[in-house]
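Quick one, tokens below. Sequence please?
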């Protein structure tokens, strides 16, 4: 069994300097690369000792944080209420002819 973390529910990330709040489901995990324009300066897995996977998110201030996945000590996930959509499948009680 794994600890399945739904990245759409991550609301905060714990780094060595403390908790960072994630804005609007912006948490993402992807290859860790440094870019100059459209050119990769350092690509994922290219440098020995550099983690190939990173994470990013937008903070409440609008700043974007990028870090190696290994820098994350913990994540906080909030429960989201189950969204239910009501569909009309026929007349409701108030819609029935009398």
């Amino acid at each position: 069994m794994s600890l399945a973390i739904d990245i759409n529910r991550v609301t905060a990330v714990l780094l060595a300097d403390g908790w960072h709040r994630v804005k609007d489901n912006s948490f993402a995990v992807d290859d860790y690369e440094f870019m100059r324009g459209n050119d990769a300066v350092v690509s994922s897995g290219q440098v020995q000792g550099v983690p190939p996977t990173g994470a990013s998110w937008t903070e409440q201030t609008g700043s974007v944080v990028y870090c190696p996945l290994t820098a994350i000590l913990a994540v906080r996930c909030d429960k989201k209420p189950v969204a239910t959509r009501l569909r009309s499948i026929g007349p409701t009680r108030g819609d029935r002819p009398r």
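The CA atoms of residues 42 and 48 lie 11 Å apart. Confidence is low (pLDDT under 50) at residues 81-98.
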